[in-house]
Amino acid sequence: MNTVALAPHRIAGLLAPAVDRTFRAGMLAGYDGGGAELSQRYGGSAATGFLVDLRTRLAAPGGTVDGPGFAAITRYRDPIACRRTVDKHVAHGMVHRNPKGDLSATERGAAFLTELYQVHAEVTEELWTGHEERVERLVAVFGRLLSYALVLAEEEGTGGGSAFAALAPPYEPDGTPPGVLLLNRLGALRHHRADAHAAAWTAAGHTASSIAALPAGPERLAIELETDRRAAGPYAVLGAEERLTVLADLAALPG
Length: 255
Known about the structure:
Number of helices: 12
Shape: globular
Helix content: 55-70%
């Protein structure tokens, strides 16, 4: 067995596009399968936009996203435009923003998120029907990865101001279906990698705008390899065979 290819940093790089593909498929199915109509009932994207992004924290009773966390989640967006969008959410009665800038869902916002979780339950069940055992395996694996990532973040003191710390662990009320568990755990791991990527391009002297404009080439490749190294920590909990299995399982899921 080629153990070099199975090293944690290597798996971190190989899994990233597979995680992205599977997560985006689930979210797109949610939008097309009732999410867009649900959003319109609550006032459209002006009322619900960031609630979808922040759902795994704001759906929890008392769940809040603080200012630094929100800035990390939206690091590639115009901060002024983001603030104006939040202003609209507040005006629609969906989000509460306290004087420190912490965001939480109002009663109306929480009702929207409860319905959104149900939409995601229905569409992921349909999207991944026939793959129930595979989804269960992935739910278990990504649960372990998330747990270890949270431990590492606490030990390393890297949680402050990170997108991962703002949204992980995802809210998982009793009875949450496997498809929703998988969708939201994948989303949390995407934020873990996003933080690793931001740390890598910051260390290389870039900003959010300059890294977005950086073309393919040796410099970008070096940043991507450094991202893999920084994102690798959680994957140490998986054995070599498990690392291959999770790649195969993600590749086999429709979407």
